[in-house]
Amino acid sequence: MKNKAGIIGVGSQVPEERVDNYYFEHIMDTSDEWITTRTGIKERRRIAEGEASSDLAFNAAKKAIESSRIKPEELDMIIVSTITPDSSLPSVSCILQDKLGAVNAAAFDLSAACSGFVYGLTVATQFIENGMYENILVVGVETLSTITNYEDRKTAVLFGDGAGAAVVGRVEEGGIRSTYIGADGSGRDYLQISAGGSRMPASHESVDKNLHKVTMSGSNVFKFAVRKMEEASIIAIEKAGLAPEDINFYVPHQANIRIIEASAKRLGLDMEKVYVNIDRYGNMSSASIPVAMDEAYREGKIKKGDNVVIVGFGGGLTWGSAVINWSL
Ligand code: UT7
Fold first, then answer.
1. What is the span of the domain harbouring residue 34?
2. Is the CB of 256 under 6 A from ligand 1?
3. Ligand 1 atom 20: the closest Cα is on which residue?
4. Is 94 considered catalytic here?
5. CA 117 to CA 64: how far, in whole Å?
6. What is the pTM of this model?
7. Cα dist. 102→107, 110, 178, 283 in Å?
8. How far is the CA of 252 from the centre of ligand 1 (A)?
9. Domain stops at, among 173, 208, 236
10. How distant is the alpha carbon of residue 177 from its chain centre?
11. 39: Cβ below 6 Å to ligand 1?
12. pLDDT given at position 233
């Protein structure tokens, strides 16, 4: 018989420094009013100089492991989703494996942008269900301030830094009832970083032209997001054998309050059942969902037995959703 996989521990960490909208008023042609009404963001967090993704990931992971009551040595695998690793080699997951003392864990990073945490959760679920592994750490971490172009008002105001983590393990009751992931690479140009890879290695010119920073076609991503958030949620709900009215809580990717509200409305969900922290953190890409999930749990908004939908979309283009019958 198939094992049941569930989330047995959660944790998150954001940097201390807060960057509010007024900061941007001083450096570019924008306003708190525009940012608040068009995105829902009031402030975001930024790492300190010398800090990197693995530092945030380590603190989030430690909290998740503590809350799961397992020891780091009991981890069989570490999956880190990030588009902002400390460096392209080694992986953030290997740095974590060493720092955590998770000596028995295999470790790799995955790249699926804002959907990455759901991709990681999906992979982890397979290994638990098929019996190969017992405990897997899944982390979403981003330091997007390091790839943000502070001269581009279309993107600069949107992004923030943070990390969220979950331990996926065997559970007797409830657990991850369904996962659904997908991609459409024909939309790859909508969100991209041109330089720093094999196509355009770093050069003086690439640095001078800001090509190591993210660019985005906001309105194209917006339209895709509203459609996909609903579609992917419905598919995960159906795969779980449930209907939208069975959903107790909704934890969407935090890219824009208008996207969150539109998708909740399409699903017939009251905003009271929807977790929102975009006002405090902005868009943290693959960290958004696990941070939101951790906060919702700690605030008592997600309780044991609740059916929780998590759903994300992002660069690639990619998307992912899951229904979790909360077992913590
Ligand atoms: O995590 C996954 C990836 N990201 C997303 O999901 C983001 C999805 N997209 C969005 O959230 C929205 O498209 C944005 C928030 C990025 C932009 O909002 P929008 O309502 O789609 O604005 P827009 O791009 O259509 O621009 C409208 C106007 C433009 O001015 P003009 O050309 O009409 O004169 C922009 O230049 O707003 C201007 N604008 C700004 N004005 C003040 C764009 N950014 C700013 C800004 N401050 N920061």
1. 5-173
2. yes
3. 38
4. no
5. 14
6. 0.98
7. 10, 19, 28, 30
8. 20
9. 173
10. 19
11. yes
12. 98
